[in-house]
Write a structure and sequence with these properties.
The complex is a heterodimer. Chain A is an all-alpha fold. Helices cover 74% and strands 2% of the residues of chain A. Chain A has 16 helices and 4 strands. Chain B is globular, with a radius of gyration of 19 Å. In chain B, 32% of the residues lie in helices and 28% in strands. Chain B contains 8 helices and 12 strands. Classes of the chains: A mainly alpha, B alpha/beta. Chains A and B meet through helix 11 and helix 12 of A and helix 2 and strand 8 of B.
């Protein structure tokens, strides 16, 4: 009935028009970059495009995907979470202590997620209720939780041995490793929240135009607190993956994971000014950063060059994102 | 002259102070259903404070607000909204990175499913946004487009469309055409004209007296926190309104 009445309504995706629209390139910078860099590495080395390598690559990207999804929640509200670098080892230490203390795996998992979430909750409460800038609060929390993790662990990393963690790190369903399956499910869940729930829409509105959201009756303070709590809980989940991957709890700062998580979100096309959630882009961003490192390793490029390349890609993506719609 | 029976909104002797500043010192206002009521006055005359007291942003200190005959005192805009009072804010309160339909249903989302698994019913919200806006607007912007991509006039009409479709009783507009060009202003005024036919009461704050003469049924003038004059628009001319705004002939 409607088709005949409204011929001009845009419903179908027009590839030709999309390619001519600079906004298309801006919105999909990470995916396009991933394809270009992937194609380049496939030409340069026959080892890149093998399932064994792709699977390894996905495993190495998994923790970053979860952390970038966590970071995405903060960035959507025009915030940022610098405390990830300390919250991650803090949750890992709590996980390790609870497990090695003999309380069992389920308790350790819950403890890790809850300890991560509490840090996020505290961030959110200070940011929303005491009206302190996100950057400053999470920077302060970075220092605090770094110290707390060092004190609680006695400054030592310790090994955590468990069949469950081994299975988590190495097991698979057919060719699909649990590790990235979990990361993919977390990212999908986040995408679903933003695309299909009222909560997600209210978070986007809070980030996009706080005054308008408030005028429409959305409790913007509560939204911001919730977002940081979710962010923290996801960091707690990432900590479990980290312990599974490295076989132990290490209290030292994870600065490179922090920087990569922000870079992945920016590469993915989310605005640092808030209001946009691009989970697929964020995942593509995380994969792009991991692919760069993977390809350089395969090509035996000195690791000293790797941060340079990553930095250039991030800046290039930021330039491309200026074309965004 | 009070129009008692069909009045959607009646404000009597409303008072509001912020510390030592008396923002309202006896404001009066009557908004009948199916009419456009214009509220005019200089900057600082108390128009915006009056609106904020009516919609529950600020509690009034004294006086009374009657809505459909019953005394009310809203403590939040959400309470006012629940009774069909919508406000079009000067900044439009639209979220640029959300689509037209998401803005239309912001904090009023239609969901399907049970308990924590309730998800947005996008199809229904898109269809109903189209239906609601098609009824009101001549140039329908695409409801799936992000507001960021729309022109100033389109944004304005969506914000008005939203206020009008939810404001079943009273739509309050603060300078609805201040930022618009001639063509877009004309479209907004036409929309206000159409809403009049829907038995909705409209309260319009405007500095543009030509516009007030064109669109309103009655004019209320505020000065220094008081309502100092009101007329049927057909029984007054611009010079009289200007004189009242400037305080000529009042103490």
């Amino acid at each position: 009935m409607q088709e005949s009445a409204a011929p001009a309504r845009q419903t179908r995706f027009d590839i030709g028009a999309a390619i001519r629209d600079p906004g298309f390139w801006g919105d999909n910078a990470a995916l396009i970059g991933l394809l270009v860099i992937g194609a380049a590495f496939s030409l340069l080395t026959p080892y890149f495009l093998t399932w064994a390598n792709i699977s390894d690559l996905l495993v190495s990207a998994s923790i970053l995907v979860v952390l970038a999804t966590a970071q995405q929640f903060a960035i959507v509200t025009a915030g940022i979470d610098l405390s990830i670098a300390a919250n991650l080892p803090w949750a890992a230490v709590v996980f390790g202590l609870v497990y090695t203390g003999g309380y069992g795996m389920p308790a350790a998992i819950v403890a890790s997620v809850v300890s991560g979430m509490l840090v996020g909750l505290l961030n959110g409460l200070i940011i929303a209720k005491l009206r302190v800038n996100d950057f400053i609060v999470t920077l302060g929390m970075l220092g605090v939780m770094n110290g707390v993790a060092l004190i609680v662990s006695g400054g030592q990393s310790f090994s955590v041995n468990s069949h469950f963690l081994q299975a988590l790190a190495l097991g698979s369903i057919g060719p699909i490793r649990y590790f990235y399956l979990i990361a993919a499910l977390i990212a999908l869940a986040a995408h679903f929240i933003f695309a299909n729930t009222a909560f997600g829409t209210h978070v986007l509105a809070t980030g996009g135009n706080r005054e308008a959201a408030r005028n429409m009756g959305i409790p913007t303070d509560r939204m911001r607190i919730a977002v940081y709590a979710i962010d923290g809980a996801l960091v707690g989940l990432a900590a479990i993956l980290l312990v599974a991957r490295t076989g132990g709890s290490d209290p030292s700062l994870q600065t490179s994971q922090l920087l990569s998580s922000i870079a992945a979100v920016v590469l993915g096309g989310s605005s640092l000014f808030g209001g946009r959630a691009a989970i697929i882009g964020t995942v593509a961003g995380a994969l792009l950063l991991t692919t760069l490192l993977n390809g350089f390793t395969l090509l035996q490029v000195s690791e000293f060059y790797q941060p340079i390349a990553v930095g250039i890609v991030v800046i290039a993506a930021a330039i491309l994102s200026r074309l965004q719609r | 002259m009070s129009g008692a029976a069909s009045s959607v909104l009646e404000v009597r002797d409303l008072r509001k102070s912020f510390g030592a500043v008396e923002a309202l010192r006896g404001a009066e206002l009557v908004c009948p259903a199916g009419e456009v009521t214009a509220l005019v006055g200089d900057n600082g005359a108390g128009k915006s404070t009056l609106i904020r007291c009516i919609t529950g942003v600020h509690p009034a200190d004294g006086g009374e607000i009657r809505f459909n005959g019953a005394k009310v005192s809203f403590t939040s805009p959400t309470e006012a909204r629940a009774l069909g009072i919508e406000t079009l804010y000067q900044d439009l309160a639209l979220v640029e990175d959300l689509t037209v339909w998401q803005n239309m249903y912001l904090n009023r989302e239609i969901r399907r499913g049970i308990g924590p698994f309730r998800v947005l019913d996008r199809r229904r919200m898109i269809d109903e946004t189209e239906a609601k806006l098609e009824r009101l607007l001549v140039n329908m912007p695409p409801v799936r487009a992000k507001v960021r991509r729309l022109s100033g006039g389109q944004r304005q009409s969506i914000a008005i469309g939203r206020a009008a479709s939810w404001g079943s009783a009273l739509v309050i507009m603060d300078e609805p055409t201040a930022a618009l060009g001639l063509r877009e202003r004309t479209a907004v005024e036409a929309l206000i004209g159409r809403l009049r036919g829907e038995h909705i009461a409209q309260l319009v704050i405007s500095h543009d007296l030509e516009q007030v003469m064109r669109i309103s049924d009655s004019v209320w003038v505020m000065r220094r926190g008081r309502t100092i004059a009101h007329w049927r628009t057909s029984e007054v001319d611009r010079t009289q309104i200007v004189a009242a705004i400037a305080g000529a002939g009042t103490a």
